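Summary: Need help interpreting a holo structure output

Steps to reproduce:
1. Submit the protein chain below together with the SMILES for magnesium ion.
2. Request a joint structure prediction with the ligand placed.
3. Inspect the structure token block that comes back.

Expected: a single structure record containing both the chain and the bound molecule.
Actual: see attached output.

Input attached:
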Amino acid sequence: MHRIRTTVVRLRPIAAPQTAKSQSQARLAAVGGALRTFQPMRSYTASVSAEPFLNGTSSNYVEEMYYAWLENPRSVHKSWDIFFRNANAGAPPGAAYQSPPRLGGAALGLANAQAMVGVQPNVEKLVEDHLAVQSLVRAYQIRGHHVAQLDPLGIMAAIDPGPPPSDIITSNDKLEFYGLDESDLDKVFRLPTTTFIGGSESTLPLREIIQRLEMAYCQSIGVEFMFINDLEQCQWIRQKFERPGIMQFTLEEKRTLLARMVRSTRFEEFLQRKWSSEKRFGLEGCESLIPALKTIIDKSSMNGVESIIMGMPHRGRLNVLANVIRKELDQIFCQFDSKLEAADEGSGDVKYHLGMWHRRINRVTDRNITLSLMANPSHLEAVDPVVQGKTKAEQFYCGDTEGNRVMSILLHGDAAFAGQGVVYETFHLSDLPSYTTHGTIHVVVNNQIGFTTDPRVARSSSYPTDVAKVVNAPIFHVNADDPEAVMYVCNVAAEWRATFHKDVVVDLVCYRRNGHNEMDEPMFTQPLMYKQIKKQKGVLQKYAEKLIAEGAVTRQEYEEEIAKYDKICEEAHARSKDEKILHIKHWLDSPWPGFFNMDGQPKSMTSPSTGLTEEELGHIGHIASSVPVEDFTIHGGLSRILKGRAAMVGQRVCDWALGEYMAFGSLLKEGTHIRLSGQDVERGTFSHRHHVLHDQNVDKRICIPMNHIAPNQAPYTVCNSSLSEYGVLGFELGFAMASPNALVLWEAQFGDFHNTAQCIIDQFICPGQAKWVRQNGIVLLLPHGMEGMGPEHSSARPERFLQMCNEDPDAYPKFSAEEFAVRQLYDCNWIIVNCSTPANYFHVLRRQILQPFRKPLIVFTPKSLLRHPDAKSNFDDMLTGTHFQRLIPDSGPVCEKPDGVKRIVFCTGKVYYELTRERKNRDMDNTVAIARIEQLSPFPFDQVKVETDRYPNADLVWCQEEHKNQGYYDYVKPRLRTTVDRTRPVWYAGRGPAAAPATGNKAAHLVELQRFLDTAFNLDAFTGQS
Ligand SMILES: Cc1ncc(C[n+]2csc(CCOP(=O)(O)OP(=O)(O)O)c2C)c(N)n1
Ligand SMILES: [Mg+2]
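--- attached output ---
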């Protein structure tokens, strides 16, 4: 009897045998009732010479005709009806065919044929069996992975709980599901065109069909791909896994694989021996990750890839650094030495978080390959979009439009891959024109546990990888204790990426030999699993024994390989003891060659003027107000906007959008690439930007005037993003990492929404340089302002950004006057501005590139000021020689008699316009000065001091439209106090403390506004208070 599977005994009994049986009986009844005997393909094979129309090419046609006849005998020509009836009746070869009745002639053939009909009604059975085989093949293709032997521990439940599907032939009694029985096993069936199990055969006995399907889909590899809605891709995968004999490796391949397993395994053992009480998040239980990655890299290098950017979590990171990226072992070992002194900035924690960049020759292909592992925070999966952004940037800068030269590999833990939403957001970027990296290879270290939590309580999907299905990525589950199977799927994954330029997932089903880290006791929570793990023979030992048994290596060779690697480790360890200083700069994932001097310092410490010539302003203004291509019809409303811009240019003024245009256009002209990304940025949420024009008559015809500034300009990328903040901001941060010579901006739809990207802000943008010695010049544009739009559309939460500045509020910086601004900038962790004029916005954007180092820039951008008649700037404020103004002092009547000024109101952003209007209404232009702090951080102590000194008799008020516990007050107050050496109090005019950022009631909003304006201009408001 055919023994279908060796594992049958371990599998649970199927849940619904009755259902399977009753279904098959119902099907039998439907096609004619009584049980029939099978006639193995007689009408298509043996009788071909006797019935010459039944040749190979016509058989599909005949088959279709036959199915149609079965459904309704009258739907086919009478001659076919006769043929099929005769065949069904058991007519011998050649006798079933009767020539069609001649017109008007006697229906002799028909009469003869009809005499036979009803003798042996077996054609239905034939067709039914044929269909059953087709369904069977399909069932394996769709669900074979559910019964594949994926789990090295053999406890399955953690991977894919639930009974095996009833349409997979896990035992002979399941044949019945298809209306087949054991007597059918030796009958020969034609294989459908959607399978490759036949190799060069087009027919096979059922027994062989099942066996080959088992080989393809139910061994150490489980392929999930039938959800892919592209036939070519499905066929490609079927071919890769179904063809007989695919899993054959040369002697050399096997020996290389063994050597890689030796390195992977012995590296962990070495660390364990030397530092047994140190955490290292070892790879034990998934040692085949190393050959897996190396296979992907080899194959991709063969396919022309020159640079691979990788992101990974803690598990196995040291091993990957050592054996994949090839970081010098002594550099890794010395990280375990707590006495090592830091030579440069950086917050330590090198081994698990810092990245690496390494160019070397790939030994298999003999080609250069650059590998970088991105620095990452502990926050699992947060690095995913960052890796994608950096990959996209590298592709962009080397003109790799198809992703043939640069690619990314992302590693994941099973629990994090399923649980973290940013994984989903990142997948959704994978096929978007401005975000695709043309296919990422994802490798999941699926050790069937997350810290102490079992999969059955950690996810609702069958597999941790189900999230990849949203983008039609094939998923190759593989038993990590079968290194050859691992190598095979990794080769296929790399080929898939090279062929289709789409994402693919390799799910390495493994186990975790120790606890979450080496100090943890896993038996507290997973006693049975760990009993099994303790019994589990290591994968290296198993594989070595297999190869020794096969004669691929001798035991002596194997032992020599081990001794050789152990010696390498020992020697590196000895060298590492000489290492006295920790150079964090050796752990950079994205060096910027040429940007810094040899010591890694800025080449100068000056900020040049950010102004432009009159001609440049005029020229960019002209482009901003025109359609620079022929025969392009824009919307009438947009024509009016462009005419308005032209009029402004004529009057030498700029509004917000035009100020931004001037900054972008000039930087592009000077060769700086600009990339602006975010939700609806092309038009602008507030319909003010219009950087992409749409032809009103031709579908998808667009024009980006910014790309028509000058012949040799840098390219401008402006792209509406998916509706994601976490994923997209991470992506742009990664893009900005690749080069210092690009202005990369991310705009939130409203500043309020940035908090869904909080992890990128908190873990990367704010502390990136401090933790990882890596500068980044990304710009965040966050629309902000209290305008009665309610609690979700008002606040970009300035208080949070300000709270995370690294500046000391109580210490007046000790810099010389000339260097004050630039030194402050150099020392800060990020720059925070709230500009009140288009000119200042223009300058700060240009300064971002023209300054000699890179810092993240947070800009609170306006909404109502976009169209405010007073929020315009004169060209004079943007001409050569002008600069960004960190503080804009009052230039009105107060300047004439500063001694008579009773109050100086400091403010920032849009509230300035409300304050000036109120001051005018109250006729207080001589008594109250208003100063705008445009750069909140670093705080312009020096310029604030000039103002406080100028008005010695004025009391000091901070005015903001935000609530008292929000906005800038808590940040500004101690700094103002430091500026005046705590000699004068600082008063507050603004909304009271509140939980929500803003009222949703317009009337309440206006009442609140008037109330704090009253306070700001009531010179007695603070009398008697201390
Ligand atoms: C976003 C986030 N949440 C929680 C943690 C804490 N944490 C560290 S490892 C871990 C379990 C990870 O499990 P898995 O992804 O399966 O990786 P494994 O450790 O099993 O390799 C958790 C919850 C974290 N690092 N990041
Ligand atoms: Mg895990």
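--- end attachment ---

Reviewer comment: The mean pLDDT is 88. DSSP finds 33 helices and 28 strands in the chain.
Status: needs-info
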